[in-house]
Specification:
Blueprint: E1 2-14, E2 25-40, E3 45-48, E4 51-52, H1 56-73, E5 79-85, H2 95-110, H3 117-132, H4 138-145, E6 148-151, E7 158-159, E8 166-172, H5 179-192, H6 194-217, H7 220-236, H8 242-253, E9 258-262, E10 269-273, H9 279-288, E11 292-298, E12 304-308
Parallel strand pairs: 3-5
Antiparallel strand pairs: 1-2, 1-12, 2-5, 2-6, 3-4, 6-7, 8-10, 8-11, 9-10
Helix pairs in contact: 1-2, 1-3, 2-3, 2-4, 3-4, 5-6, 6-7
The structure holds (R)-mevalonate.
(R)-mevalonate (MEV) binds next to helix 4 and helix 5.
Length: 309
């Protein structure tokens, strides 16, 4: 018997970085997923795309999640955990959070433990903290709950209702980067200009609340303006780079309403919204110029798990 879990990736629509310091962020689950299969085994271990994971930095966060669950629910952790992923790593789309969420969920399913989004999040965060140092928890919340969320640390996430399906354009700059380093860079800005940073954090919260309203009402033009504004602020605090700025400008020149970096920045991906008739041609235009780009139709569900023989 094995248990399988599939967890969605995510895009932060507004509020990244400031969410670590207490602001609201708006984020959506994306239809690219991480799949984890877990089974009891006499030869326990972790594999990625069929190859054993030997790098301790990659192994240890997942092992931490499994060990914490084994301790709390008193079961043996002699498990084989196999991970496959449609989510590029280091691309700002939350691949590590999706992996932790899928691991926690598959292990719970295998052991017959009924576990909700809150506890999946609690265990997943043990692994996420190893990877990112001081994550806000937004990636884990979106991957476990799915949909579109307004998230703020320490507060129950708010689901944002959409009046219909919407599309987000996602494009990868091709440059991978470390979220941990980016979070530390922003903390440096906060130390240097504490009162200015406090003002920006409050403004980022307002930006996310406004963006949620626009998205909910289907006003993608208004949402796009807010997203472009948010990109400018993120660039000001030093988390964009020339490659990301060029990718944002290119997406706008192809006809998007608005575009911004998504996630930690410094590389990674951008997210954009566009008029209904233009989304596909923008994605094609980005691909023609060599970028990995796709259209993500939202909302999508959160993690799901099941048993198989
Ligand atoms: C990473 O997806 C988003 C950041 O805000 C970090 C976090 O919230 O954990 C940069």
């Amino acid at each position: 018997m094995k248990a399988i879990a599939e967890a969605p990736s995510k895009a932060i629509i507004t509020g990244e970085h400031f969410v670590v310091h207490g602001a609201w962020a708006l984020a959506a689950a994306l239809p690219r997923r991480v799949r984890v299969e877990v089974a009891d085994s006499a030869h326990p271990g972790f594999t990625f795309d069929g190859a054993p994971i030997s790098d301790k930095r990659r192994l240890s966060p997942m092992a931490k999640v499994v060990e914490a669950m084994a301790k709390e629910y008193s079961f043996g952790s002699s498990l084989n955990v196999s991970v496959t992923s449609e989510v590029p790593q280091g691309a700002g789309l939350g691949s590590s959070a999706s992996t932790m969420v899928a691991v926690a969920s598959a292990v719970a399913r295998l052991r017959g433990i009924s576990i909700g989004a809150h506890d999946i999040g609690r265990f997943s965060m043990l692994g996420e903290k190893e990877v990112h140092g001081r994550p806000s928890g937004v990636d884990v919340a979106v991957s476990s709950m799915g949909g579109v969320l307004l998230f703020r640390p320490g507060v129950r996430p708010r689901k944002v209702r959409l009046t219909g399906a919407r599309s987000l354009i996602i494009a990868f700059s091709g440059r991978r980067r470390s979220t941990k380093r980016q979070i530390n860079r922003v903390s440096g800005v906060k130390e240097l200009f504490p009162s200015l940073f406090e003002g920006l954090t409050e403004a980022a919260s307002d930006v996310s609340l406004m963006a949620a309203e626009r998205l909910s009402a289907g006003d993608l033009k208004g949402l796009g303006k807010i997203m472009s504004f948010n990109h400018a602020v993120l660039a000001t605090i030093g988390v964009s780079n020339p490659g990301l700025d060029r990718l944002v400008d290119l997406t706008l020149s192809l006809g998007a309403y608005g575009a911004k970096l998504t996630g930690a920045g410094g590389g990674g991906s951008i997210v954009a919204v566009a008029p209904g008739g233009k989304e596909k041609s923008i994605v094609s235009g980005l691909r023609e110029r060599g970028f990995e780009a796709f259209l993500a139709v939202i909302p999508v569900g959160g993690v799901r798990s099941w048993l198989e023989k």
